[in-house]
Amino acid sequence: MAQITLDKVSKIYKGNVKAVDSVNLGIENKEFMVLVGPSGCGKSTTLRMIAGLEEVSEGTIHIGDRLINSVPAKSRDLAMVFQNYALYPHMSVYENMAFGLKLRKYPKHEIQRRINEATEILGIKKLIQRKPKELSGGERQRVALGRAIVRKPMAFLFDEPLSNLDAKMRVQMRTEIHKLRLRLQTTFIYVTHDQTEALTLGDRICVMRDGKIQQCADPMTIYDKPANKFVASFIGSPPINLMDGKIIKKDRKYYFQEGKFQVKLVEEMYNVIAPYEGKEVTFGIRAEDIYDKLFASEAPPENTIKAACEVVEPLGSEVYLYLNSGKNSFIARVGAHNRPEVNKDMDLVFDMSKVHFFDRDTEKTII
Ligand code: ADP
Asked: Which residue's CA is minimally distant from atom 22 of ligand 1?
């Protein structure tokens, strides 16, 4: 059972740097948990404490019922895969993969059997005699994965394993990690700063900032129901459009207003937004929830905004429009058939059932 539980775990480095701040996290057996956040938010430190490569300053870590705070890394039955592969340069692929098993005194035929199986899964059978310097980045990372697989650990810990690969290889390896996960049916904890990797790989995503967990939930909840402004803006590409303004009430209807920019809230939101009448809030709308009026002619006029289209960016299957409505800029992600004229005003429809509002002081989600 590789259920891993962190209870009020903190890491304080020399000089009183609180890299991880009272983290509570339960990772289920066979779960794929992604720790994501900007550089320096404490995700690697969290992973390294689980691995036993960093001491825990405060709190406890359990694997199953076993308290592991003072169990050495090699006795935790966890295998780590690093961004820089950490292969031994003077050893062949075979020797690199065999090394950990030899140390643990596995019989030769068992080592052979496990390496055969792993190289088969990873498609690196032909490379077995090569040295790391004779391999591409993607191949090296496969060897590093192989070295972890042969150990048959209770859980895999991945620290930015794809960050050194080029964009195409990153996408390919991401799919392979996905397949590997389905095949191995083990617990994975995966650290990345890349929100796409987090969304595509995780059963659950734990978003971190300044050593603290901001939200931990399945990818769709993180995307559709972010807990605060930070999560909303970190997850999603292009990033969510944010705008500061005021909630006003006219004729029993609530509007969000910023200068000339005004949109009407849907009635389902009235109860929750009522206490914010007359107050400043942050308004958020994702790029895919803004439409060209030409293709949304039924939309109510109170959700229609005039804006100048400054840049049209065709991406094949879709188009990004970079828009400006006076003081505010925003991005719309529209269908490939949209080709508005640049530097001309156009009408845009905001899908008000999809928008978010955030408290200006706490940055927590109101809606
Ligand atoms: P992430 O993996 O999210 O980029 P890290 O866990 O590596 O972040 O680092 C979190 C914070 O701890 C950063 O501010 C970093 O500078 C600091 N830190 C990391 N390692 C050490 C160390 N060995 N000594 C002092 N501070 C460290």
From this structure: 13
